[in-house]
Give the backbone structure.
Amino acid sequence: MPPRPIPDPTAVPNPPDAKKPKPPKAATAPAAPVRPSAGRFDRLDALRAVAIVWMAIFHFCFDLNYYRLISPPQNFYVDPFWTLQRTCIVSLFLLCAGMGQAVAWQAGQSWHRFWRRWAQVAGCAVLVSIGSSFMFPRSWISFGVLHGIAVMLILCRFAAPLRGWLWPLGALALALPRLVQHPFFDARWTSWVGLVTRKPVTEDWVPVLPWLGVMLWGLALGQWVLLNRPHWLQGRLPAALQPMAVLGRWSLSFYMLHQPLLIGGILAYLALRGA
């Protein structure tokens, strides 16, 4: 049986007091477009989907290069064309995660529900570490994007009541790695903080600093939008973009499945070509 999809813990939860939409009144005029339900923020979900689709394309190119199916070979670790894309993808995803936490905070998400969703992210992060250790034994992922999100979700949960302080705190988090470095943080088990003198050898590294700054800004932006421009997140989506909103609500499942499927497809292609 196929694995049951895992809802994205950073996606927007349904508010506990969300009211069911009323059935449309009978009328002779054409029916108006259906509004998103009270517990859905389709525009935010669709924006998250943009990040994960971009990520999947990036990873597919990486996989093709890893199996020497791209000519000339690419250097994904130093070439600005690839490193800048990675920075943009991670930034967009963390920004969406921060806005999702703003929505959850406003909806009165309980600590029980928060920890249940957090456990899904943390559990998937452990699976990523285990899986990467088989494919990249020397550069396995000890603190990648899911590990970073797991830690930053907790910090953002406690920071949510600070509101006006979120922007300067985010700026401080972004600036600290440039101002403070120490060899103590260069070890694999301490590099997750981010105050390193050299980057660790790993396939994915999203330390708390400076990336916490991006999520804090997402949290601050989400709180401002919900207070001043809620329709930016709750507005209608064209019918053609509704699949993106659905995908955004299942982004953790997508994240966990896309690489095994992409790599499996490439290996199947290589086997058929060899035969």
About this structure: Confidence is low (pLDDT under 50) at residues 15-20, 26-38. The longest helix spans residues 80-106. Residues 224 and 230 are 9 Å apart (CA to CA).
